[in-house]
Design a protein that fits this description.
Helix content: 25-40%
CATH superfamily: Ribonuclease Z/Hydroxyacylglutathione hydrolase-like
Strand order of the largest sheet: 6-7-8-9-10-11
CATH topology: Metallo-beta-lactamase, Chain A
Strand content: 15-25%
Order of helices and strands: EEHEHEHHHEEEEEHEEH
Radius of gyration: 17 Å
Structural class: alpha/beta
Number of domains: 1
CATH class: Alpha Beta
Shape: globular
Length: 209
């Protein structure tokens, strides 16, 4: 997750992996004196990026159009700890993901999966200047990169990751070609969702090997 804030309101990038996670981020925002969230951006539709959305009040949820129907389908599933166990019994490859979901969710009351309320196809710039760009890729068809020009930061989500574990083949790996294409002299920092941020110089050095 990331928060981009100015006097017009905060842009929250990804919703958190659960309502409890979202509420913890909200508490941290209040403690830091940041303005309330006005926009919630999905970098893609996977659970650990969207399951906290139902705990974000009064926001416009923005996502790439390919994720909307995927999330509508996910919202119809009878999510519960029992359902997670049943799904893993039927398909053991779901185990790592579904066990993580069970650990993240201690309470299913009022939980719902929310598709984006505003979608875009290729690019969209929010009123605060944050730019969204659809890049797709093997990890998720709706993968979106978030550019923050004022801070010279690019938020990558999981766009260059291989497919999720239960869909991954033996030859699937990081999409380094995508990562190279995303490097831009106008941006100094690159942050993916599950790793440490890197500078432009560090990213180029890593990719040159």
């Amino acid at each position: 997750m990331a928060v981009v804030a100015d006097e017009r309101g905060s842009v929250v990038v990804d919703a958190g992996h659960s309502p409890a996670h979202a509420r913890a981020i909200q508490a941290a925002m209040r403690a830091a004196g940041l303005p309330p969230a006005r926009w919630l951006v999905y970098t893609h539709h996977h659970w650990d990026h969207v399951w906290g959305a139902c705990a974000w009040p009064d926001v416009e949820i923005v996502g790439q159009v390919a994720g909307r129907e995927l999330l509508r389908q996910e919202a119809t599933r009878p999510w519960s700890h029992r359902y997670l166990r049943e799904q893993v019994r039927e398909n053991p490859r779901l185990g790592p993901s579904f066990r993580a979901r069970a650990l993240a969710m201690d309470d299913w009351a009022d939980f719902t999966i929310l598709p984006p309320t505003r979608t875009f196809t290729d690019e969209l710039t929010l009123p605060v200047g944050v730019r969204l760009r659809h890049v797709g890729g093997a990890h998720a068809p709706d993968s979106t990169v978030v550019y923050v020009p004022d801070a010279r930061v690019v938020l990558l989500g999981d766009c260059f990751y291989p497919p999720p574990a239960h869909l991954r083949g033996p030859d699937d790996g990081l999409d380094l070609a995508m990562m190279r294409d995303l490097l831009d002299d106008d941006y100094e920092w690159y942050a993916d969702s599950h790793g440490e941020p890197t500078t432009l110089a560090q990213a180029r050095q890593l990719l040159s090997g």
